[in-house]
Amino acid sequence: MTTAMTIPRHGGTGGRTAVAARARQVVKAYGSGETRVVALDHVDVDINRGQFTAIMGPSGSGKSTLMHCLAGLDTVTSGEIHLDETEITKLKDKKLTQLRRDRIGFIFQAFNLLPTLNALENITLPMDIAGRRPDAAWLNRVVETVGLADRLKHRPTQLSGGQQQRVAVARALAARPEIIFGDEPTGNLDSRAGAEVLAFLRKSVDELGQTIVMVTHDPVAASYADRVLYLADGRIVDEMFSPTADQVLDRMKDFDARGRTS
Amino acid sequence: MTVVKTSLRNFLAHKGRMALSAVAVLLSVAFVCGTLVFTDTMNTTFDKLFSATSADVTISHEAAEDDDQGPRTGRPEALPASLVEQVTKADGVKSAEGAVVSMSVTVVDAANKKMGSDNGAPTIAGNWTRNDLKSMDITSGHAPRGPTDVMVDADTAEKHGLKLGDALRTIAVTGDIESRISGIASFKMTNPGATVVYFDTATAQRELLGRPDAFTHISVTAEEGVGDTRLKQHVATALDGAAGGPYKLQTAKEAADSGREDVGAFLDVMKYAMLGFAGIAFLVGIFLIVNTFSMLVTQRTREIGLMRAIGSSRGQVNRGVLVEALLLGVVGSILGVGAGVGLAVGLMQLMGSMGMELSTKDLTVAWTTPVVGLALGIVVTVVAAYIPARRAGKVSPMAALRDAGTPADGRAGWIRASIGLLLTGSGALLLYLTTQADKASEGSLLLGGGVVLTLIGFIVVGPLLAGVVVRAISAVLLRMFGPVGRMAERNALRNPRRTGATGAALMIGLALVACLSVVGSSMVASATQELDKSVGADFIIQSGPSGPIVPKAEKALRAAADIEHVTGYKMIKAELTAPDGAKETEELVAADPTYAKDLRREIVAGELAAAYGKNAMSVGSDYAERHGVKVGDTMTVAFTGGETAKLKIAAITSDESNVDKGAMYTNVTTAAQYLPADRVPPNMMMFAKAVDGKEKAAYAGLKKALADYPQFTVQDQTDFKQGLKDEVGQLLNIVYGLLALAIIVAVLGVVNTLALSVVERTREIGLMRAIGLSRRQLRRMIRMESVVIALFGALLGLGLGMGWGTTAQKLLALEGLGVLEIPWATILTVFVGSAFVGLFAALVPAFRAGRMNVLNAIATE
């Protein structure tokens, strides 16, 4: 049994369930009566441990909402979400905050870093907040992996967009969370910088056994994933394993066409 | 027109962010208007009172009311009663009536409780005349008819629960008047607090003047159709050459005017002091407004960039911000004027609780009051917004295209640094020169210049100091809070200009507090030291505002047991002629010879004891130098109302002293030789020394001796020093109270800065919450930032203020303020208190930050 407080172990599925997070009949609705908008409509999903999962879908499909709910950033209207053995839909804000701090990593599209802290301080921030000492060897490895060793003392404003995102990736990795959630982590980057960041994410899954969930609308980004979930109108409508960019693009075009005809 | 429209929309859209600035404007304007309304109302009240109580023409003794303290003799100057008849015969006179009025009285009830007020309002005893009917109605009982009747004013009766038939004792220098209340009379207008008792004319003459054939005033009523000025001429003609003249004649208007002048002078002091404090609040408010508009402009950089990109000119952007400031000023000032009237009413009630009755019926709002309030509020706001407005105008159209992110840090440049250091440096130089000054007058100019320059200098270098000081404070206080403390420190440092301005606002108020507390405690310390050095008496008996120590009380004191000696201390006016022929009117101190032991004076020449010898006196060293007087010289002393004496100078006392500086001593028996018995004033003060070892018993004995005379107090040295300390403490408390306004505005500034920072950092806060910062940690971070800013302001303010205070003490050392005492307890309390103020200021911003939606971080526009 794990609780929200346990320091997450890492790597592979050894001795643990293959599912890192699961959602059951999750509904997220805004407003009520005639103005009620359903963002998630009875979603069931399992996020496999040690895999890189991409969530795709057109704007307003609910992909970001799904990620926010899975990550404990947003509350659900009904349904259950488990992170490993913990039912996070039942947690109060305090426990939820601890859970995010100790067991989840985040990479946002932009504004990932605190401008007052330098790169290293940003990377260790979640552990600092928790009052934990970072594992020096692990930290070194992460920093090496993302290639930031010579930039650690720089403030975010002194870093390029790609470097900033790499710092964000390093921060997400450094605390060894059970899952890293990325919300269009490469959305603000040019294709080369984006590819770099995606490569790091891929590498962290392959080499470090990290579980990653990423929301994106970029087929190229999705092609780095092991599995792609397609969302439309708040429902999971399809999935694809070991995709290529072309496959993803084709599938997206399909949905677009269907969306227009239906 | 579009500029106004956009500004109006912006103003309304950001009204929450403007709210605290509006409150700051409101408070300052309210204080100004409140002061004006309050003092105008006081003036109205006194005007009505004086106009109602003045007769068409009043005749009084020429020397009447020369002295604020009342006559030294305790007896009012009198006019012969025969004058009334003479006046009645004058042209245009319908009637003339003699009045007796004395303010050197104390009224006590059967339990010896004082009926008069302790805060300056007079106790007035007199005869009941027709003229009094103009201002008073007898509401119960009847006017005084015999020697045991007394009529009292209704306010006093109500305050002390007096009923018809109750015993009252009126203490005058001529003796006690025992009487029973025969009537109660009510003022037709507001009586601000005077206690008034009336006797019949014979009793008043006999008991208050000690003469049956005299009056203090004559109230003359004009015949129909005779103007007051003409009446005055007629009366003057009739009295020309009358015995005892010339007399002072005043028309009703002149009498009212002279009364108003006396009160007005006091009211003006109060008014300008309060307006001065309002000015400080305005100054502090400027920082708040500047910060608000700077932050609004920064937050709207993209918006402004867009406006510029689509063709707004710099001027338009600039004006747009100024129009917003104008709106803020208008709203704040209008509310402020309203609040000012409320404040005035509150002040009136406060005065009421302290015994000064003012009625809202007299509430006077002059048309100038709202005009001044509005003008001040609006001008200050717009001027304060000018710098941010100019900065807004400088925003380039490119700003629209840049990623908003967080606004760039405002860095303080080296130009600012050098200007600030230059100002601070020259201010410090002036302060140093102040300490070296030889004359208080030139020193005070230097001090003023030094204070202003160092203040401005500190404000200018504030942002730079913020970096250093905040780091230092954080190193001590925040580091122990780990990453949260570190983030709080970084946040406080990220915009030094903002932190500097916020802290500077607090600095101003606290600097004044520190400065005054240093001066105040140095005053107490210096006085205490001087007392210890010079006072040999064990006990001091002081007279109050109700006149000198009455002979009966003196007798009781002299009869007290366990006393080695009792010293009387009188002041007698005389015209002195030095051997060089120079004439000066001075007050001589006529005391018992034991006074030389009670107060040890430094002697320049001669021997002080000898000055108490027959026909001898002493002078101060300044006078001696001025007129080249030496021991052995003879002075010609013409006692006012008495004869002229030739007194030999037996001693010259040093004027390097605070106590009795410049006093000229002579023996009371010497003075008495040259004065008629009723012109020898009773004692102003008395001193007593206990028989060795019997101090306690003696103290109790003296207190008991004065039991019947509650207007006088006996104090031993400890109590006297404590009294001095309390007095200074009270004064300081009033000033602190007035400074509280400026400090409140400064605290609003801290709240404002934090609140706007929280809004500005919405995304950051969301991000931190997302990656696991708990609400508690977040709130703590904001509180710590607030505490650091507050402590920064406090440190600067206290440092600056102590510097000013020390300099002031060094300067005042010329005036006898020889001891520097820094009240560390006060300073420390203020410092620690500032930390709590910081915590308090962060309450709401921290709460709001805690409630912020985590998802805001992720919502990318």
Word description of this protein:
The complex is a heterodimer of chains A (262) and B (861). Chain A is α/β, with parallel strands linked by helices. Chain A has one domain (50-75, 92-261): Rossmann fold (3-Layer(aba) Sandwich), CATH 3.40.50. Helices cover 36% and strands 24% of the residues of chain A. Chain A is built from eight helices and ten strands. In chain A, the strands form two sheets. In chain A, strands 6-7-8-3-9-10 form a six-stranded mixed β-sheet, sandwiched between helices. Chain A has a four-stranded antiparallel β-sheet with strand order 2-1-4-5, with helices on one face. In chain A, helix 3 runs parallel beside helix 5 (161-174), helix 4 (136-146) packs antiparallel against helix 5 and helix 5 (161-174) packs parallel to helix 6 (191-208). The longest helix of chain A has 18 residues, at 191-208. Chain A is globular, with a radius of gyration of 18 Å. The model of chain A is unreliable at 1-15 (pLDDT under 50). With 861 residues, chain B is an alpha+beta fold. Chain B folds into four domains: 1-55 and 253-404, no CATH class; 63-245, no CATH class; 462-536 and 717-861, no CATH class; 563-690, no CATH class. Chain B is 56% helix and 16% strand. Chain B contains 24 helices and 24 strands. In chain B, the strands form four sheets. In chain B, strands 15, 16, 17, 18, 19, 20, 21, 22, 23 and 24 form a ten-stranded mixed β-sheet that branches. In chain B, strands 4, 5, 6, 7, 8, 9, 10 and 11 form an eight-stranded mixed β-sheet that branches. In chain B, helix 2 (15-53) runs antiparallel to helix 21 (717-760) and helix 9 runs antiparallel to helix 10 (368-393). Chain B is globular. The model of chain B is unreliable at 404-410 (pLDDT under 50). Classes of the chains: A alpha/beta (262), B alpha+beta (861). Chain A binds chain B through residues 64, 68, 73-74, 93-94, 97-98, 100-102, 104-106, 108-112, 114-117, 121, 125-126, 128-131, 157, 171, 183, and chain B through 403, 405-406, 408, 482-484, 486-487, 490-491, 493-494, 763-764, 767-775, 777, 854-855, 857-858, 860.
